[in-house]
Amino acid sequence: MEPKKKSPRPEDKEPLQATAAEQGQQRHEPHFKIMIAKVDKLARNSIDPVPVSVNGVQYAIRRGMAAYVPACVVEALRNAEEINYEAEDDNVENRQPSMVQSYPFQILDGPMPADVARSQLKQARESARETA
To answer: How many domains does the chain have?
Structure first.
């Protein structure tokens, strides 16, 4: 009798990695300056950074702070929706579903070329160091 083969555990598998071409494409596409709302209506995980993964490239975007991100990240945030049930007259039976953004955000500036976004980010970091 043959021993049963164990199925691979999720932690045994290697995480998917983006190819150099995919990473390069994201570096060269237009960038936007965005800000994700710091506190949402339900106050769940309101201090945790927002994880966004596009084509194997992962981003952790801090809430309440301006961030320069590629257009594909903006599109992923726009598409991140969830169903919210709101009760009228505190009647649980008549709750109406509505689609809301999972991570409300605003676009502060853009689109701009990636190299411009990187230079603006560098300047912002330098000025933050000078004031600290």
So the answer is: 1
